[in-house]
Amino acid sequence: MSKLVDFQKKLFEHIDELHRIGEEDQYIRFVSNGLRFILNTTEISGAYLLPRVIAIPSAPKSVVGAVQVGGQVWTLFDFATICDSEKRSVRTGSSKVLTLSPHLAPGIALLVDQTFSLVPQRLFYDSGECFYPAEWAKTTLLNDEDGSSWTEIDPEVLLNGSSFVASSVLSS
């Protein structure tokens, strides 16, 4: 349990430090089924190691179950299944839970394969097109330093879009 607490403390200390020095515009990068995605840190409330998952009987395929992280219970959705209804995330030691910001969707979290360090938005530029064919994919961002490409997610469109709604049942 101390590894989880240490990971969470370090992540939030890093975010707090960046806010303190004025580096507020950050992205969190993550991988799901080998595809690279990026999300503005203002759209998440935390990133956690995958805890014990409690199954939800008769849940849709995209619902992994319920998890308790950060002192709250979250409905955990498999991001890989949202992307492609035929796929499931493979749970490994690097699997992470991204809890979405309460202003977007209270109690909703995404299971992803792996996360990477937070990076300043200034290191990315918009390619001008989107290579990932989903309604919730905003654009493809390119990293100035290493040339890597990342699909930026619009979480509001994701949560209200047909790929999410078709694969899940939202509870109030």
CATH hierarchy, class of the domain at 2-119: Mainly Beta
Helix content: 10-25%
User: How many H/I helices?
Assistant: 4
Distance between the termini: 30 Å
**How many beta-strand elements?**
11
Instruction: Give the overall form.
Output: globular
- Please trace the helix and strand order, writing H or E for each element: HEEEEEHEEEEEEHH
Which fold name corresponds to the CATH topology of the domain at 2-119? Answer: OB fold (Dihydrolipoamide Acetyltransferase, E2P)
**Average residue pLDDT:** 85
Find the CATH superfamily of the domain at 2-119: CheA-289, Domain 4
Strand count, sense and closure of the main sheet?
Answer: 6 strands, mixed
Poorly predicted ranges (pLDDT <50, ≥5 residues)? none
Biggest sheet: strand arrangement? 8-1-2-11-10-9
Q: Which structural class matches the secondary elements?
A: alpha+beta
Our Rg estimate from Cα atoms comes to 16 Å
CATH architecture descriptor name of the domain at 2-119? Beta Barrel
Beta-strand proportion: 35-45%
